[in-house]
UniProtKB/TrEMBL annotation:
Residues 151-189 form the UPF0029 domain. PANTHER family: IMPACT FAMILY MEMBER YIGZ, IMPACT-RELATED. InterPro entries: EFG_III/V, Impact, Impact_N, Impact_N_sf, Impact_YigZ-like, Ribosomal_Su5_D2-typ_SF, UPF0029_Impact_C. One of its GO terms (cellular component) is cytoplasm. This is Putative YigZ family protein. GO terms for biological process: regulation of translational initiation. The lineage of its organism: Bacteria, Pseudomonadati, Pseudomonadota, Gammaproteobacteria, Oceanospirillales. Gene3D superfamilies: 3.30.70.240, Impact, N-terminal domain. GO terms for molecular function: anion binding; guanyl ribonucleotide binding; ribonucleoside triphosphate phosphatase activity.
Length: 203
């Protein structure tokens, strides 16, 4: 089964660079809305901060298009992009990093800012612990009674979990399984049972 790495717990690091405090935090976010909610919670908690720069990747980092970043008022390209670039090379998905800056009175210049924001994320990634996330698919499978045992055998072959069984005119299974195994299962059901078994994806 193939999946992707996601943060297993939040991480926070802090640096003081030429008088400015840079507090970088990472959090597991499974949706874009969750990423936005986390960012807003930091803004609400620390309204006096000069900037809350951020970057996130939601979903499989090797295939997702759900990624974004922001300089939050810093010079263009000095914060969000360096942060996102490190995330994109980390192989970790479902992650947001937010770097909160309290200005200390000394300007860092564009190169210094990029090093500060990117450096915070590098420190985060060094400390981050991850776990494997397997993307799941859900199916409803309806079959004739005499096919029941054989259907259950096929489900075991693809690591499917039976969430519910209903007995009526036919037997109905609600199952979840690794997304990568979905096509294998449906093709096998079609070959083995033909019209005796029907299925559909469910949310």
């Amino acid at each position: 089964m193939s999946g992707y790495s996601v943060p297993s717990s939040p991480v926070e690091v802090e640096e003081v660079i030429k008088g400015s405090r840079f507090i970088t935090r990472a959090e597991n976010v499974a949706t874009v809305d969750a990423a936005k909610d986390y960012l807003q919670s930091l803004r609400d908690a620390e309204p006096d901060a000069t900037h809350h720069c951020w970057a996130y990747i939601v979903g499989d980092p090797n295939s997702t298009t759900l990624l974004s970043c922001s300089d939050d008022g810093e010079p263009a390209g000095t914060a969000g992009k360096p942060m996102l670039n490190i995330l994109q090379h980390s192989g970790v998905g479902d992650i947001i990093v937010v770097c909160t800056r309290y200005y200390g009175g000394t300007k860092l210049g564009t190169g210094g800012l990029a090093r500060a924001y990117g450096g915070g994320v590098k420190l985060i990634m060094e400390q981050l612990t991850t776990t494997e996330k397997i993307e799941k698919a859900a199916l409803q499978i309806v079959g004739a009674y005499e096919c029941g045992k054989d259907i259950e055998h096929e489900l075991k072959q693809v690591d499917a979990t039976i969430e519910n069984i209903e007995y009526d005119a036919a037997v109905t299974y609600r199952v979840s399984l690794p997304l990568n195994n979905k096509q294998q299962l449906t093709e096998q059901l079609k070959v083995r049972f033909g019209e005796k078994v029907q299925w559909k994806s469910i949310q």
